[in-house]
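agent> fetching stored inputs for the flavin-adenine dinucleotide docking request
agent> found them:
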Amino acid sequence: MAEHELRDISIIGGGPTGLFAAFYAGMRGASARIIDALPALGGQLMALYPEKYIFDVAGFPKVLAKDLVRDMATQALQFGATTHLGEVVSGLRREESGEPGAGHFVLETATDTFPTRTIVIAAGIGAFEARRLGIEGEDSFEERGLYFKVLDPGQFKGQRVLLVGGGDSAFDWAVNLQGIAKSIMLIHRRDGFRAHAATVNQVHELQRCGQCELRTFWEVKELHGNGRIEQVTLRNSKTDEEETLGVDAVIPLLGFHSDLGAIKEWGLDTQKADIKVDQVMATNVPGIYAAGDVTSYPGKLKLIATGASEACIAVNNAVHYINPKAKVNPGHSSNLAIFGQKEE
Ligand SMILES: Cc1cc2nc3c(=O)[nH]c(=O)nc-3n(C[C@H](O)[C@H](O)[C@H](O)COP(=O)(O)OP(=O)(O)OC[C@H]3O[C@@H](n4cnc5c(N)ncnc54)[C@H](O)[C@@H]3O)c2cc1C
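agent> prediction call returned; pasting tokens
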């Protein structure tokens, strides 16, 4: 076990909320770290929709998810917050020293321990994993023709692509892989779609122009290939008809399972899969705050913008918790000496 140094604030989750929390910690002069289960910063933005435009982040008429993450990371890490990627936080304990309540927390992953004065849980929807097709042998084709997310659309250049699913991701890629993939078929096991109506209409239009084939009541029955996918057998759930087609890539976009995992066992008040917080983003455990998609309170909106606001509130209150003489109100960044400005 590698034991790291004591930090003021440890942030669980390096999505947009965790990144903004790291920035605010640095701006307030608090030492911070980010721990994330994924191999890269960015949370859902990098794992699920790096190539999609986001239109509702203040200051950006539109911004690609991956570009927003790049700039948020630059902003977040400027004060020396460390990042520990590919590590799932599972354990939490308290280490008391001297006076009761004078100790600190210790977060644990499989390999490391992280002593910390306070914690900001920005774990989003938890450590998440794409829903799989649930058919025999699919594991052996993963990344060999079977992809559960699209990180680089260019990888499907000239390929015969089969998209599976009825939600936004499947429909968005049926549109966004146009001009890249050689052919696109989208199948869904029902004839109702969760995708945005405008995108569904776009796909119907592409179908009319022969640029996409949309089939309902079809599902993947078998994958075939020697080392990588070459063919797929589809089954019609209404008629039991089967058809085997040549494909280069199968992309199931069926949503994802998410799980807060061991965090649920930490004695925090929860509501369904979310952590209950009060108006200063404090959980029921003093010194542990939460922000972003993981939180629950009346009127909660799960958005990047609200996560940033909550990160700001959580961190400023964590700073005050560590040092009650430190004001909760951070003042205006435009006046702060830390940015080379003259303090008013
Ligand atoms: C397809 C799609 C499109 C979207 N479009 C928009 C949009 O246009 N505008 C908008 O505002 N929002 C949008 N959202 C929602 C937005 O992505 C979320 O609100 C945002 O990602 C929440 O950020 P977060 O940092 O709170 O959580 P997340 O982004 O979920 O990040 C949480 C991080 O915590 C990590 N983590 C979880 N548990 C652990 C653990 N135990 N140990 C270590 N790490 C852990 C995860 O690996 C993850 O990286 C969209 C979401 C999707 C799926």
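agent> quick read of the result: The longest helix spans residues 304-322.
agent> awaiting further instructions
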